[in-house]
């Protein structure tokens, strides 16, 4: 008969549940990944449950108990109390654009799409531009929201966006994973795709992937097993996308087209002359019908016949509808419209539009309201706007023909993004500045999250325009954001371009700093040889003493990661000397601490302990962690077990108090090493497992390699001791 899981009494409901889950893991004798696999969970989810960052659903608790053949029922009260007392569940994620209030027709297509989502879990809506693919996808997603309690995700793949390249799969996966709050995704496309499928497998979410260019770009984004679903749109038929059935849209039939036109226009069409002519000029395209209806609504003195006569004056059917909507605006508003066609990025707010046009924000907001009313601009969420690709291209074509100085307008908006990014960056805490500027750091980070796609587009536009001031500045303003979201493929490209721009501007010191950041980004991506090349180039640019010390320190990190502790030690000692001469106490302490660490790796524990003590004399706060860990491990090697563990627990306490998850994993690993050296194998193995659980969602490859090597050594010694 199955035995009950023993309920321990630990303070706090959430802590009690975590304790029980840890006991289950210990009983299983499995690694985190193996336990997750056997329980049918994702390893990243299990890591969050075991580290107390997420209360698991009851089904997950049951699944874990089944793995160890234990009765889960005694855990039900503990789980229920933790579920009630834990943090309130995050609100349902909803990135979807607003549903159209006037959505009309498409009943058979709507029913078919919903059926395929329920049965196949995937569907692609294809059809010509302007036929209403996105509108149908968003409409269905809102209708089916209740079936997907974990939310609705939306990503524009930019397959047909004027002036933009389609998103490549790694970039698209990075943004989708970011929407799931995974800020450190792996670097490779296959690893990202696997993580994306794993994350979706434990959720019930609906993912809308809009404007797909081709099947090859979409295939890595599809969910695997699980209850999530994906809804695609494309102008092309994605016939090679196996397992994703298509629903093709044609222009609206006359009855539905007339109904939509009448709804938008606010008129009854019975007995009105000219209806057939209007419908013919709009070609059954919902986009054109909405524009024509808006034109009539804003001209109460007109009849449908007058509108039909005006539409006949335009040679092209769809341009007729666009032009009619545009002609209802005055000249300043028409200028705003055509300039918006040049705006970089996916969407925009009033501030960006005001900068582009040179208008006061209040006046610009009024114009945007007019453009929304004319269906020339969509308000995707309060204060955020976007343009349909067809209309955007129409506006850009008009700007090319009519705008006398578009480059000046574009440089204004580039300066706007640069200035806003720099202002918000100054609010974010960072080691490279003494104190952040006044402001709300959470609001600042939220702004970067919201505008990130537009900032990347602004950088690319600045490169095309030769706006080197912006090219050089934007990556530095994104420095803290990139540090918190390591793994993005954009960082290396931006820093490389920025360093080149700084060189063209003759700013050698700035170029050196950008190259130093480029090397750091390359090292974080595991491209160590390229990182060293960037550091050497930065050194040739003549950095100041402070940057020279930082370069020496980072060069030491690179050689350490390459498995060359002797060369690393030389670099750390050079860094220590430079920091000391510059009077940089914390930098000096850091260089000494890492010198101590590689000295320990060279088998010199007594010398390593002396260096670590010297580092601790100069360090404070979390800067003490490396020195404490090194001193603890060195003392453990020399047989001073109690003192060693005291230093290591102090390091772990600092990492936990400052919420440094990477450092927590590192501290647990070397606590395990010290315990191993003192013969406490079972405790050592538990700390190793905790370290790997902490690392699971971070995807820090280099650190995971270090921690796994230490774990494998402990396992080998444990097995040898038992043998």
From TrEMBL:
User: Which keywords does this Swiss-Prot/TrEMBL entry list?
Assistant: TPR repeat
Query: Positions of the TPR repeats?
Result: 512-545
- Give the HTH cro/C1-type domain ranges: 21-75
Q: Which InterPro entries match?
A: Cro/C1-type_HTH, Lambda_DNA-bd_dom_sf, P-loop_NTPase, TPR-like_helical_dom_sf, TPR_rpt
Q: Which Pfam families does the UniProt record give?
A: HTH_31, TPR_12
> Under what name is this protein listed?
Tetratricopeptide repeat protein
The species this protein belongs to is Actinoplanes flavus
């Amino acid at each position: 008969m199955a035995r009950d899981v023993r309920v321990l009494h630990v303070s706090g409901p959430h802590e009690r549940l975590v304790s029980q889950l840890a006991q289950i893991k210990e009983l299983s004798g499995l690694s985190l990944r193996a336990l997750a696999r056997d329980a049918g969970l994702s390893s990243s989810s299990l890591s969050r449950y075991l580290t107390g960052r997420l209360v698991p659903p009851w089904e997950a608790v049951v699944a874990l108990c089944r793995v160890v053949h234990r009765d889960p029922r005694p855990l039900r009260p503990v789980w229920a109390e933790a579920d009630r007392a834990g943090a309130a569940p995050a609100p349902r994620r909803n990135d979807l654009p607003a549903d159209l209030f006037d959505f009309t027709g498409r009943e058979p297509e709507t029913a078919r799409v919903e059926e395929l989502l329920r049965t196949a879990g995937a569907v692609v809506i294809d059809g010509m531009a302007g036929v209403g693919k996105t509108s149908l996808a968003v409409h269905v997603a809102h209708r089916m929201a209740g079936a997907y309690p974990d939310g609705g995700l939306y990503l524009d793949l930019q397959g047909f966006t004027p002036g933009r390249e389609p998103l490549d799969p790694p970039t698209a996966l990075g943004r989708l994973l970011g929407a799931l709050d995974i800020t450190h995704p792996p670097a490779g496309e296959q690893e990202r795709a696997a993580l994306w499928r794993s994350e979706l497998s434990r959720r019930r979410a609906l993912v809308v992937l809009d404007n797909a260019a081709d099947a090859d770009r979409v295939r890595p984004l599809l969910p695997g097993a699980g209850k999530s679903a994906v809804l695609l749109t494309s102008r092309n038929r994605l016939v090679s996308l196996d397992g994703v059935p298509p629903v093709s849209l044609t222009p609206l039939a006359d009855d539905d087209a007339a109904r939509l036109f009448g709804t938008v226009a606010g008129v009854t069409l019975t007995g009105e002359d000219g209806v057939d002519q209007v419908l013919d000029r709009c070609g059954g395209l919902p986009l054109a019908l909405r524009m024509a209806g808006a034109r009539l609504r804003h001209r109460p003195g007109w009849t449908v016949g007058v509108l039909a006569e005006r539409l006949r004056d335009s040679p092209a059917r769809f341009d007729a509808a666009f032009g009619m909507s545009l002609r209802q605006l005055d000249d300043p508003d028409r200028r705003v419209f055509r300039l918006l066609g040049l705006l970089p990025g996916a969407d925009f707010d009033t501030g960006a539009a005001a900068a582009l046009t040179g208008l006061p924000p209040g006046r610009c907001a009024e114009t945007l309201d007019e453009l929304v009313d004319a269906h020339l601009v969509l308000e995707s969420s309060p204060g955020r706007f976007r343009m349909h690709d067809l209309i955007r291209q129409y506006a850009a074509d008009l700007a090319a023909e009519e705008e006398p100085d578009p480059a000046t307008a574009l440089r204004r908006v580039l300066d706007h993004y640069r200035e806003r990014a720099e202002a918000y960056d100054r609010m974010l805490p960072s080691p490279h500045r003494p104190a952040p500027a006044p402001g709300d750091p959470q609001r600042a980070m939220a702004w970067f999250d919201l505008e990130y796609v537009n900032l990347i587009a602004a950088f690319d536009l600045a490169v095309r325009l030769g706006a080197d001031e912006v090219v050089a500045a934007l990556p530095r303003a994104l420095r803290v954001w990139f540090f918190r979201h390591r793994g993005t493929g954009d960082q290396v490209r931006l820093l490389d371009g920025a360093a080149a721009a700084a060189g063209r501007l003759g700013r050698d010191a700035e170029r050196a700093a950008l190259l130093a950041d480029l090397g750091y980004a390359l090292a974080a991506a595991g491209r160590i040889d390229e990182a060293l090349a960037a550091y050497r180039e930065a050194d040739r640019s003549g950095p100041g003493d402070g940057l020279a010390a930082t370069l020496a320190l980072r060069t030491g990190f690179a050689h350490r990661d390459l498995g060359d502790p002797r060369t690393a030690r030389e670099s750390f000692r050079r860094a220590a000397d430079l920091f000391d001469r510059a009077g940089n106490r914390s930098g000096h302490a850091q260089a000494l601490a890492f010198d101590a660490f590689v000295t320990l790796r060279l088998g010199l524990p007594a010398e390593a302990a002396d260096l670590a003590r010297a580092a601790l004399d100069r360090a404070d706060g979390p800067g003490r962690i490396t020195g404490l860990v090194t001193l603890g491990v060195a003392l453990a090697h020399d047989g001073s077990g109690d003192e060693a563990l005291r230093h290591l627990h102090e390091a772990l306490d600092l990492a936990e108090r400052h919420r440094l998850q990477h450092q927590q994993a590192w501290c647990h690993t070397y606590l395990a090493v010290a315990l191993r050296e003192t013969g406490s194998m079972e405790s050592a193995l538990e700390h190793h497992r905790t370290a790997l659980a902490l690392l699971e969602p971070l995807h820090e490859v280099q650190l995971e390699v270090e921690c796994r090597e230490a774990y494998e050594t402990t396992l080998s010694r444990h097995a040898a001791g038992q043998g």
